Amino acid sequence: MTSVPPLAGFTVAVTADRRRHELATLLERHGARVMLAPAIRIAPLADDEILHAATVLCAGAPIDIAVVTTGIGFRGWMEAADGWGLGEALRERLATAHVVARGPKARGALRAAGLADAFHPVSECSTECLEYLLSRGVAGKRVAIQLHGEPLPGFADALRDAGADVIEVPVYRWAPHEDEATLRRLVELVAAGSVDAVAFTSAPAVTSLLDVARDTGHEDAFVAALRGPVMAACVGPVTAGPLTRRGVATAQPDRSRLGALVRHVTAELPNRSQRLHINGHDVELRGHAIVVDGVLRALPPASLAILRALADRPGRVYSRAELVASLPAAEAGEHAVEMAVTRLRAAVREVKLVETVIKRGYRLMVEPPTEREQPA
Questions:
Q1: CB atoms within 10 A of CB 249
Q2: What whole-number distance in Å separates Cα of residue 75 and Cα of residue 81?
Q3: Phi, psi at 285, each rounded to 5°
Q4: Residue 47's pLDDT band (boundaries 50, 70, 90)?
Q5: Does the pLDDT at position 44 exceed 80?
Q6: Most exposed residue of 9, 44, 105, 107, measured as fewest CB within 10 angstroms of its CB?
């Protein structure tokens, strides 16, 4: 039996921006068809006066606690500080501070700057960082928080309520991606169930795509698809947050890493395919193809739609009129059903999967035909 790559026949959308090509390459190595649809982009602040003012505050007096949320943000902060001649003073303040790093990339950026963290949460979540700081006590402390693309009002407000003097350090912001047409197209494909999985690597990307779905009038269908046939694969619980709040069950790896995300998708997505034993052959229905006895067969969209409809109740006879409803929007009429069946048979010509029941319609050959339902 031929070995079929685990993701062959599946379409996976990638919403990441900065590392989208890396993620796409990893998925393609496992056979996936990848759709690149960056949902957000990192944009520099329109006015860096706020960042400069925050940096002056941090460099000008001792910092008791510093929270570093992202590697790219911390590196950008250090580069900006160096450009203003404040880099050395800022590093000295951070060297004596109790530094909390939200995740491994933040820790790596700290080490590259010759600094070290005193705490990093196992969950890599801001919530655990906040709980840790509140448990230690922050009353009267100067706390600097390097933001990660968007404000953290709940985080900062909780520290202020506990008596801390909080300095928020905005290094960059998340902005919608310029390629709005691709995002709209992705929303439509997800809503129609034409994508098998969507990979998310940040919560802002999830929010951005939900906003596009709402603005284009596809929100209900989009969310329903993610609750059903389309896998929402998230790199971790923080990324999954906006979907979890919408009642979407997400697929998440044990570790919040791109490689772990790809391995999880590779292991889980094939389990969602439908497997049938038809006329003595093992058949697996994947996103845009089928696997027959271990051999991948590409099918036209209409033929695959007909096969899925017949597989909904294997052995049941479906009339041509019933099958019309399963065709893609561009196809219509009973003649289109007949052409789709013809193309399906041509694609698997040596294997008989579908039989014609005279004057009644079609069915899958999952059982011997009865005397009253002889195939043509």
A1: 13
A2: 10
A3: -95, 115
A4: low
A5: no
A6: 44
Show contacts of 318-326: CB within 8 Å, 24+ apart.
318/361, 318/362, 318/363, 319/360, 319/361, 320/361, 320/362, 322/361, 323/361, 323/362
Q: What is the Cα–Cα distance from 15 to 232, expressed in whole angstroms?
A: 11
- DSSP string of 231-249? EEEESSHHHHHHHHTTT--
Q: What is the mean pLDDT of residues 23-43?
A: 93
Q: Which two tokens stand for residue 93?
A: 């303040």
Q: Where are the alpha helices (DSSP H) in 67-202?
A: 71-83, 87-95, 104-112, 126-136, 153-161, 180-191
Report d(CA 237, CA 240) in Å as an integer.
5
Of the candidates 36, 224, 12, 261, the one whose C-alpha atom is nearest the C-alpha of residue 251 is 261
Residue 205 tokens read as: 């990307």
Q: What are phi and psi of 128, to 5 degrees?
A: -70, -35
Distance CA 97, CA 143 (A): 9
| pLDDT value, residue 6 | 96
Query: Could you tell me which residues come within 8 angstroms of residue 220 by beta carbon, excluding any fewer than 6 positions away?
Result: none
Question: What are 108-162's pLDDT values in tens digits?
Answer: 999 999 999 999 998 888 889 999 999 999 999 999 999 876 667 789 999 999 9
Nearest alpha carbon to residue 146 among 46, 43, 68? 68
pLDDT of residue 173: 75
Q: Which of helix, strand or coil describes residue 1? A: coil
Reported as type and span, the H/E element at residue 254 is none
Domains of the chain: 11-39+177-272 (3.40.50.10090), 43-173 (3.40.50.10090), 274-364 (1.10.10.10)
Record the pTM: 0.77
DSSP SS3 for 302: helix
Whether residue 346 is predicted with pLDDT greater than 80 in this model: the reply is yes
Half-sphere exposure of 248 (CA within 13 A, CB side): 29
Distance between CA 233 and CA 272 in Å, rounded? 13
Please tell me the distance from the alpha carbon of residue 222 to that of residue 230, in angstroms, as a whole number: 9
Angle between helices 258-268 and 20-29 (to 10 degrees): 40
User: What H or E segment, with its residue span, contains residue 10?
Assistant: none
Strands 295-298 and 289-292: antiparallel
283 Rama sector, left if φ>0, alpha if ψ -120 to 50, beta otherwise? beta
